[in-house]
Fold this protein.
Amino acid sequence: MTDKKYPTPLLDDLEKGPWPSFVKEIKKSAKSPMVQDLLGLLERSYEEKIGHWKHGGLVGVQGYGGGVIGRYSDLPAEFPDVSEFHTIRVNQPSGWFYTSDALRTLCDIWDRHGSGLTNMHGSTGDIVFLGTKTTELEPIFSELTAAGFDLGGSGSDMRTPSCCNGMARCEWACYDTMAFCNDVTQTYQDELHRPAFPYKFKIKASGCPNDCVASIARSDMSVIGTWRDDIQIDPAAVKEYALAGKLDIGKDVAGRCPTKVIDWDGTTLAIDNSNCVKCMHCINVMPKALSPGKDRGATILIGAKAPIVQGALLASVLVPFIKLEQPYEDVKELIAAMWDLWAEHGKNRERIGEFIQRIGLGNFLEQIGLDPAPEMVIQPRTNPYIFYNL
Amino acid sequence: MSADVVKAKRKTDIGPPNYTKFLPPIIKENYGKWKYHEVPQPGVLVHTSHSGAKLYSVRAATPRLLSIETLRLFASIADEFTGGFLRFTSRNNVEFLATDEGKVAPLIARLKKEGYPVGGIGPSITNIVHTQGWVHCHSAASDASGVVKALMDELYPRFENMDLPGKTRIAFACCLNMCGAVHCSDIAVLAVHRKPPKINHATLGKTCEIPSTVAACPTGAIRPATVDGKQSVEVIEEQCMFCGNCFTVCPSMTMADPENDGISIWVGGKVSNARHEPMFSKLAIPYLPNNPPRWPEVTAAVKNIVDVYAKNARKFERIGEWIERIGWPKFFKLTGIEFTKYHLDDFTHAGESFKRSAQLRHSSEG
């Protein structure tokens, strides 16, 4: 091995301190000449306060239109081993559960063909293999699929769906998020691997309104578990919380309820469920005493996105309540209707949230066959510029 | 092997492995049957099922960017303590899933010894959701991993303890694309440009589709133009707010600028529905310089916001809920952050953020 070690005084400073250091991680893989050059290039960025990656890069594997993010350095003469430094997105298992054997399998493949650096995980959920050359892409792909792993999404396609750990390890899961996430991922493999949309489309599944995968902010289609009957109360456990004294039930529970539906007289807790908005606060702070109702399902919200181009959006209510049971036919019908409409009429690089704002939520609903409902708005419109369809 | 044979063997569209292969037996047995959970100590969750079974989850910090050497270390720790079972969280922590309570203390000790401390549960500051920065992205206005490391070193006690009024989520994005969770976090650190793109007229016609470049601009600042006989674009600089979206679609419009790129700080976002509905983050500090490797101005600013919040907010109040209760003038007063014209929204529907009432606090104290 040629000795290509560069001095990295600025990065070395980030090896100090209590938080685990990404510089230490990079150095753990520094037996690879590619990683040595990455350290050199990154140190240069720290010196100059500017990135050193060229714009874009179109690389991939045969048969797919997405899954690999090509990247080329703008200093190939100085740092030849990162002149190509592509990222591979590998679809994670639902809920990010692994066995040690599965992790080792992934490490061995990446050891043979890439830098040895990863992101666990990318923000959308994928396992990210960080840094390899174009010639390694096909060999990696064939070893990954032989081991039972496939690529994730990138580009104008359905991106890799992700979910909270749901029923695997949470008493609040109102539907089986992991089964749903796995099912939609498998059902829409073609839409995930071969970009056919105006722009990206993300699906995220959260088991309750705590929304531990931030679906309402980070997915075009957000599926959030909820219930429509009464919160289950265990009076004996309520008494235990009251006696333990860590929680002031009047102030911390009833007083914090957004719709003030909790009545606490010092011994008995009562909830006016007809006015409860399922925010989760009382359940969150008294998990032993309170739990979601038994008639469970999900709310589907649509259109979240980051600011570019017309401004950031949180997802808004599309279906107030839906039962979520395999094989999820209703949800799939809805997805098909939305994709048909948006793929046909969405502009280039127009997220579905911006598309809905452009054509109007009323028209969108009409086209996909849903009825308008008051749950879809904070309030009715205040301006009188109404398009009457007479 | 002939090309045909290779093609015949090619596997596609298999999707991820089925998650059920990776679940420990205790989870398979109690799937959907959990009764309640407790947090006996920072970084540890205990889930109890209706059958009485108990699952101990130990949550450790990671820098998200991990070497396979570390993943192999995690695998061997999982083999030693948790039957080979582990998972990662939606904020890129790692969790080891134990059935034996006796393994918890030695597991924590081992993780600490290896440099992956345990915490990030309850009213604490857990891992910072972040992006690629100068490690891999072409449009980054700052580094991600470096800022995150500097911040978490500074805020470290808040990761190990549960002494904040409410959960406090910090996110980082290295440009206005805002990959990740920056627009809905209690504290968001967002790298920004402050100068218009530099146009390479010689290459633009060859490397870019001009109509989509024009369409990429949120403020309509880009127009097709012929420059020195070449098809290109012009930027009306007074209309450009340096978002960089034109560079995303057109490589001949570069944004990066060492002197003027830097960091903005945003506050008061959340995604959970508990108590208050989900909220966007709002601008607190328009600009702080890029100052690698430790970004001292940024870490001081974030620490100040966290400290003022910790001192003033009520139990369970998230930063956004706290500010809504006390009002923005008091937030700026308590934190000592200067309010500027940059805080006044001037994009589409900006007026929705103007104060349209006489409900104001005028008391001289506090």
About this structure: Chain B touches chain A through 116 residues (CB under 8 Å). The longest strand of chain B covers residues 34-41. Residues 111 and 337 of chain B are 38 Å apart (CA to CA).
